[in-house]
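Thread: "does anyone have the structure for this chain?"

Original post by V.I.:
We have the sequence but no experimental structure in hand. Need at least a predicted one for the grant figures.
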Amino acid sequence: MTDERFEEIMIAADPVSRKVTFFVPGQPVAKGRPKFARRGNFVSTYTPRKTADYEALIRAMACEVMVADPRLCMGPLRASFEVRLVVPTSWSKKRREAAIWPTTKTDIDNYVKCALDGMNGYVYADDSQVVELFARKVYAEEAGLLVTVEEIL
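Reply from O.Q.:
Generated one for you, tokens below.
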């Protein structure tokens, strides 16, 4: 899929009142499974540190963009994510040049879950407002996560 086609999909026929777009540099992190710890007679649940740190980074990047207009996005939302991964250096030159779609682990939905949770309360009140979702995982020169959230009128 070309970048132009990706933009066509993102810009739907219906009008959009507000759009928030930002890029999170670095290796994307997928949502980790919750961890459990026994504390005396109680068991507590917590989010793994790597996941919590990445959600905080997403929040920081979103807040940077939201400075101009700090209002939360309201109503139904359309969200799109482009997970950009770097081609492994161990691959041959021929294989690296032919690489487009990463079909290896981690699942794309885990990247999306982490990003959606990271934006809760900062870009929108709750991720349940997202009614339309588009995500893709590609090989790129620079690793990162491209996020776009739009209000749907």
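V.I.: this helps a lot. Strands lie at 16-25, 35-39, 42-46, 77-85, 130-139, 144-152.
O.Q.: and Confidence is low (pLDDT under 50) at residues 11-15.
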